[in-house]
Structure formats: structure tokens, C-alpha cells
Amino acid sequence: MTMNHQTGGYALALGAGGAIAFIVAAAIALALLLAFLKFDQRLLEISIGRLGLVTEAVRHQGETGLALGLQLTELEDLTDVLRRAAATRDVLRIEILDTGGQVLFSSASDSVGARIETQALLADASGRFRYRTQGDELLLIARLHDGDGRFVGEVAVRASLAVQRKELEQVRLDLLRSAAPVIAAALFATLLAVAMTVRRSALGDAGDEPGDEPGDVPGRERP
Amino acid sequence: MNRDPIRALVFRLTAVTVALLVALSLLAGWSALRSFEQALFPELRLKAAGVAEELARQIDRALDYGIPLTELPGLTETLAREAAEHADIVHVAVEAPDGRILAAHGARPAWLAAPDRDAASEYDILTPLTSGGVTQAWLRLSLDPGWLTRASGDLMLEVASELLVAVLITFEILLLVVHLSLTRRPTRTGAPRPVNLVFLRLPVFLFCLSEELSRPFMPAYAQQLAPTAPWLPVDLAVSLPITLFMLVWALSQPFGARFSGRIGRGHAFVAAAGLAAIGLTMTALTEDLLAFLVWRCVTALGYGIALIAAQGVAVDHTTPADRASGLALFIGALLAAGVCGPVAGGIVADQAGPSATLLVGAGLALAAAAALVLLFGRSLRPVPSAAAPSPAASAAAAARTRIFPRLARDPRFAALILCSAIPAKIAATGILFCLIPLMLAEQGAAKAEIGRIQMLYFLAFIIVSPLAASLADRWRTQRGFILVGGLATLAGLTPMALPDAAWGAALAIGLFGLAQAMIGAPQLTLVTRIAARIEVPEIAAIGWYRLLERLGGALGPLLAVALAAIWSYREAALGIGLLCGLGALLFWLVYRGTPSAALSENSP
User: Fold this and answer.
1) Most buried residue among B65, B150, B199, B510 by CB atoms closer than 10 A?
2) How far apart are CA B221 and CA B216, in angstroms?
3) B45 to each of A6, B80, B260, how far by Cα in Å?
4) Strand B134-143 to strand A91-98: parallel, antiparallel, or no bridges (unpaired)?
5) Looking at chain A, which residue has its C-alpha nearest residue B196?
6) In 3-state terms, what secondary structure has residue A104?
7) Coil, strand or helix at B107
8) Cross-chain residue pair B347–A34, CB shorter than 8 Å
9) Is A219 within 8 Å of B179 when comparing Cβ atoms?
10) Which of A103-107, B399-403, B463-467 has the lowest mean pLDDT?
11) Is residue A135 within 8 angstroms of chain B, CB to CB?
């Protein structure tokens, strides 16, 4: 083996090893990050499914009154329904909004008359609700229709996601704790494996016929 | 012994990398999934408890009216309706205090303990049904133990597809690193090194990736913008972006070939990549359908010119003897981007939205231009002699020398184009790029899921195409492969009719890719044979073949949405499959009926 071959072999081992180790570590880290994001999404979907039951129950009550020919503003007894429904775990308050987002009835009387921004909400997986998360708070909206199917207002449920966020944070920490050694092992093992592979190839090349310079031939590699 | 040390080294390194990647990812993934399941289960139980509470309230109301449970009408239907709304609930039952089941829906998994309200398993929710404060019966909801497994399976699929992308990117970078390291060694004669075409792969890969990222959401994105042009039917608004893209791409080929020949392949690639980046950026920023269509055309122009320029690099720097391997490098990069793009694009679009994904694409187009400049430097100066014109340039020249009428008059060429090449492209653009994203998006699939399914087409293509090409050559039965490929397209698309949309579509797209992989190389071989027989330049015949099939590709989305408007997405896909199958049969009959063709099939 010539000095040139040795130097080239070391450079190749270092270059290829570094690049591959980085890609392997990045791929594992990215895979875990994506899995975590997907888990976060799934957890939120389940929470929305659970809080959606409350939303649906209130919507059903409201639409029963509307089907009798009452106006939304006339459904005074909805306040009691809202207060009862707001006792559900994690629910902060439940409100009935008009088509412009103004609060008509609420489980917390101090918010009546306030306006809620209902634009730029995301549709949930079932397509029945729209939602937005802000910090630890979830806003879940369902549309109210009268007996003729006209859109007359919305049910808005505000819920705390603090418990889920805490759970999520715990999972994130567990993941970091278990992933860090795996990623470190990936870096080390890849560098070692690539160095050994390149060295074996370099030793093999040393026995090749003179003039065999593979880099001189363009387009040898087929996909 | 004919041994290529670079190929052997890259192969070994790829094998080592894949082994490490798979082993360590499985380890990390297994640990992550365990934590996920532990965290999801309590939330799932809470939700089921909410369902049980709501159901119990309804039943209690009936009990308060004095209706006995055994006489309560529609109880089983109510339980069934509730279970149908929650995929995580497998069994709902109303049980009498003595354990008798009064009404039930769904089968309780056998391995869960026998119904016993005092010892409910962790998968059961038991709620009392009361009247006047007295427990009349119990409502039992059983969570589906398989639901968490399926959710974990979905996660694993996502991770696996991301690993596949990582492996392909690793392979591209490995090729580059190994070749760069070897190129730095001085040559023995001290002469300048020839252009290494392996360096073309990364720019082409990055550039194609910039466009492939948008595959999972482009039709649905256009659908969202459709209200901004109310004068345009929605179906047309959905298909036009893809149709116009294909049309501009096809028509830009002759111009792109001349343009890149004149200013230099490198300069043309950089300029076209810049144009595509502008197109993608403006597409991301626009909220108007008309402007969206215009910017898609600009992107297509850049895309077409860049690809023909890159193809020109491969042609300029190879001789007829090694041209096939040079072009294989180019095609390999295209296919690798086809596998990686939809998956990566779907994931990015799910997390950051379609506009951000288009901006990432613009960044990749610029990165492709930068990679070409860094890797080739000044070695891609204009080649005045243009050692061998590209197929598209030859097509333009052919038009001037009236080659096209000679090709068009040949019944074999007409049969090949009309009955096989055009239907195949219609199917590819109509089903893969248009119907599948629309159908899956309508059924609530995430963009990452759509991307994963689209990836299967390219994956099947990469695996089967070389084998099919080699077998068709060895058995000298290109015509047979085209027939089987056309019929297999029809058969392969039938799983689209399966009730499970995601699995049905995945299976159909995998089989569709497999069927299409059987057609490409045999079509090309027959074109070269026809060219030899009617004495037209082979490269001109290939140029016309490519141009015509791409024009067919422009028809695909239009036909697909028109059929979907009449029937449904599934039936439209099956209709296009039928077109491919019937076209293949017709091709077989027309081509077989030509004596000289039969002679060619059997001649050495």
C-alpha cells in the first residue's frame, strides 16, 4: 500500500464516516421527533374526542330548542345546561356564540357579551368540530343549526390541556433520556463500522492491478 | 474478473449504514412506542368513560319514564350507533344485575375476562344504569386492545418510510463522498480529469425533490383556491395545475435543449433552477387560483429546462458505448427523488402546511443549483459540437426534416403511442398525482399518509423496472411485457374498490407501480426497433415518443377528474385502468398483425 493510498484511505474513511454517522444520527433523531409529534397529535385527537362528547351534548340540547321554533337568544335555560356540562373534567367554560362570535350564554356569567375569535381554526379528524390550542388551553367549536338547517350560532368549549401537556412533557423527557445514548451509540458505531469497511476496501484495492483508478471513469455507478 | 471497487465500496457502506440505521431505529422506536402507549391509555379510558356516561344518561332517562330495559325499543341500535362513532370501542353491552346480556353490539375480545362487573379488566368501563336511585342494570364498554396496536403500527409505518428516505439520502451522499474523495487523488499522467457524472446525481436529486414534495397535496391545495375563480368549474380547477405543468414541461423540452446547448448546460441548469425556485415561492404565497396556475407554469418551465439541461450533461459527457450508464445515473436520481419527495413533503405539509412545504421546495431548487456549481465548477462550459444531441433536441430537428410524418404513418409506432404510451402516462398523472391525493384527502387521510402511498409507486418501479427490462430483453418479448403490463395495470387497480380506503389504495398503487415498471423499458426498445426499420434516427424517434407520452400525461388529470365527476374517485381510477388494459390488448392485436413486427420479435 502506497503512502498516497493510505492518505486517501484515511481521508475517505473520515469523510464518509463523518457524513454517514451524521446522517444515521440525524435520521434516528428525526424519526423520534416525528414519532413524538405524531403522538402529540394523537393525544390531542383523543382529548378532542372526549371533550367533543360534551360539545355534542350541548349542541344537541340547543338544537332541540331551536327545532321548537325558538330563537337562539331565547334559549335562556341553556345557561343551566352549560353549567352542568362545564362540570366535566378539564372543561373551563362552555359558551353559546352568535354567528359573529359574540357570547350569548356562558357557564361563567362574566364572559357574556365578550367576542371570541372563531376564524383560523383547524378542522378535527371527524370533521364535526373546529379547534385551536393556545398554550395549555383548547378551544373547541361546533356549529348550531336551527330546524331549517340554517347556521345560527356556535357552541364553544374551553378546556385545560394541562394534564395532557404534563404527560407529554414526561414522555418527551423519557424519550430524550432513552434516545440520547442510542444516538451517541449510532455516531460511534457508524464511525467505527465505516472506518473498518473503508480500511478493508483500501487493503483490497492495494492488491489491484496498476492503473486501476476507479475515479477516472465517469458514470460507472448504476442506480 | 470485471470488478468495480467504487461500486463494491459504496455497496458495502450502504449495507453497513442500513443495518445500523434499522437496528438502532428499531431500538429507539420500540422504547418510544412503549412510552406513547402508556401515556395514551389513560386518556383513551377517560374518553370511553365520557361515552359511557352519555349513553347511561340517555338510558336512565328512559328508565325514569318507567320503560323496562327489556322493552326499550332501539336499544341495540343506539349502542351500535355509539360504537360506530368511536373506533377505539369494540363492545358495548347492557347487562342485567344477574349478568344476563340484555342488549349488545360488537364482540368482546376473548382474552378479556368473562363479563363480571366486580372484576372488570382495565379495558372495561362499567357504569350503573339507575332509576329512582336504584341500579337496574350495568352498561359495559370495552376498549379495543387492538386500537393502540394499530395506532402504534401507523407510527411505525411513518418511521419506516422516513427511514427509507434516510437510506436513499445516505446512498446519494455516500456516492458523492466516495467519488469526491477519489477525485481529489492526482491522476498518474497529470492530465485534467474528465467530468465525473456521479456528481450530477445530487443536483438532479435535490432539484426533483423540490417538485416531488408537493405531490401529496397539490390537487387538494388547488381545490382550496377554487372559490377565488368561481367562473372555473371546480373539477377543472383541480386538474388544471397538473395538466398545465405537464404541458409546459413537455413543450419546454425542444426549447430547453437548444437553450442549454447555446448558453451551456451548467448555466441553463442554474437559471432554470432559479426560475423554478421563483415559481415555487410565488405559488406558496399566492391566494388566487389564476396566479397559482401562472406560477405553476413558470415552475414547470424551470423544471423542464433544468431536467433537459441535466440530461444534456449526461449525453455530452458520454460516448454511445457508456451513454446508457450515464443516463441511468440521471434516471436513478429522478426515481430516488420520486420515493423521497412525497413522503418528506407529506410530513412537512402535515407539520408546517402546504405553503411552507412549497417554500422548502424553492430552497431545495436553489440548493440543487448551488450543488451543481460547487461540484462541476467550470467544467460544464458550452459544448459547441454537442457530441450527441439530446432526444428532445433531436425531436425538434426531426420536425424540421419531416421525420414525424414518417413515424406517424407507421402503424406500429401509432399503436405503441396511442394504445400503450399515452394510456400509461394518463394513468400515472391522472391516478397517482390527482385521484389518489383527492380521494385520500376526502377520507381524512393526513398528507404524510398520502405521500407514503404515492411513494409505493416509485418504490415498486425502482425494484421491478431493471428486472423487467432485463427479462424482456433476454426473452425477446417486449410486446408481451407491454400487454401484461397494461392488463396488470387494470388488475392492480382493482384493490381500489376495497372498503378500507387507505390499505386498498396502498395495495393498488404498489401494484400499479409494479405494472407500469414492466412497460417503460420494452416501449423504448420497440421505439428503437421501429426507428431502425423505417430508417429514421433512433434519437429522433425517442424524442417524439417522449414528447407524445408527456402530452398524454397532460391529459391524465383532465380525464381523471371528468370521470370522477361522473362516477367517483374509485370508479374513475378503475375506468383509467380499463383504458390501459383495453389499450394493451389493442396494441397486442395491431402489433401482432404486422408481419415485419413479428419478424423483428423473433429475429436475433
Assistant:
1) B199
2) 10
3) 63, 19, 64
4) unpaired
5) A218
6) strand
7) coil
8) yes
9) no
10) B399-403
11) no
Contact assignment for B331 to A218 by CB distance below 8 Å:
no
Q: Which residues does chain A have within 8 Å of residue B24's beta carbon, measured at their own beta carbons?
A: 24, 28, 182, 185-186, 189
**Which chain B positions have a beta carbon within 8 Å of A53's beta carbon?**
47, 50-51, 54
User: Which residue's entry shows cell 498516497?
Assistant: A4
Between CA B511 and CA B518 the distance in angstroms is 11
Beta bridge partners of A95: A106, A156
What confidence score (pLDDT) does residue B395 get? 56
Between the alpha carbon of residue B595 and those of residues A28, B228, B482, B523, the distances in Å are: 59, 56, 18, 19
- Whether complex ipTM tops 0.85: no
Taken in order B215, B217, B220, B222, the sign of the CA dihedral is negative
Tally Cβ neighbours within 10 Å of residue A145: 15
Q: What is the dihedral of CA B574, B575, B580, B583, to 10 degrees?
A: 150
**Closest approach of B566 to chain A, Cα-based (Å):** 25
Mean pLDDT confidence for B373-399: 62
Burial label, B494 (beta-carbon count in 10 A; 0-12, 13-18, 19+): middle
Identify which of B341, B325, B15 has the alpha carbon closest to the alpha carbon of residue B171: B15
With CB atoms and an 8 Å threshold, state whether B17 touches A190: yes
Q: Residue B466 is placed in which grid cell?
A: 431493471
* Cα angle: B408, vertex B412, B413; to 5 degrees: 40
> Which amino acid does the sequence have at B272?
A
Contact status, residue A90 vs residue A139, Cβ threshold 8 Å = no
- A181 has a chain B CB within 8 A of its CB: no
For chain A, the C-alpha Rg in angstroms (whole number) is: 31
Read off the pLDDT of residues B488-518 as tens digits, 9 standing for 90 and up. Answer: 999 999 888 776 666 788 899 999 999 998 9
Q: The cell 380521494 sits on which residue? A: B439
DSSP B391: H
Q: Rg of chain B's alpha carbons, rounded to an integer?
A: 29
Look-up of cell digits 389518489: B436
Q: Do B31 and A178 touch (CB under 8 A)?
A: yes
